[in-house]
Amino acid sequence: MLESIAKFTSVRYTHLVNLDTFGMYIDLINRIKNAQAARRRITRTPYTKMDAAITNILIRHGFVDKVAVIGRGAKKILKISLPAKRTVHAFQALSKPSLDRYAGARELKPVQGGRGLLVVSTPMGVLSGDEAKKQHVGGKLLFKVW
Q: Among the four residues 64, 102, 109, 139, which has the most C-beta atoms within 10 Å?
């Protein structure tokens, strides 16, 4: 029993462990950032609805070129094409499992003088900070990308 737990907690097998939603979207951004730094054209990540919504926001803002969903059922993956206009230089997780950060529409500020992107989970779905501000909704602050 202990051997199987140790096998799943090692760095090599982290993709087999069920991560909470925090770990999943941070893993998505980290995979995109690392693939762009290695000059790869494509990266793959396990499919979740949250990751699909986040990648759609990244497409609209030029961080990702296009996304395709491959597979069926529990074996779905997101295939992300990366030759995009902008690259992910860095990101910052705002909400963590131990601390959820919320903000109203008036409190949503531009990231890096307007060059970055704020991603917010709202009652209307996952939106960028600009979209949430235009629709006058606040929500849980997920992360910043620049």
A: 64
Expressed in angstroms, the distance from the first to the final Cα of the chain is 43
Q: Please report which helix (H) or strand (E) contains residue 102, including its range.
A: strand 102-103
127 DSSP β-pair partners: 120
The structure's pTM equals: 0.82
Q: Which residues contact 75 (CB under 8 A, 6 or more apart)?
A: none
Distance CA 130, CA 109 (A): 9
* Listed residue (110, 85, 14, 93) closest to 54, CA to CA: 93
Q: Are 146 and 112 in contact (CB under 8 A)?
A: yes
Domain edges within the chain = 14-145
Residue pLDDT, tens place only, 35-78: 999 999 999 999 999 999 999 999 999 999 999 999 999 999 99
DSSP state of 113: G
Residue type, 1: M
Backbone phi, psi, residue 22, to 5°: -60, -50
Class of domain 14-145: alpha beta
pLDDT at 83 over 90: no
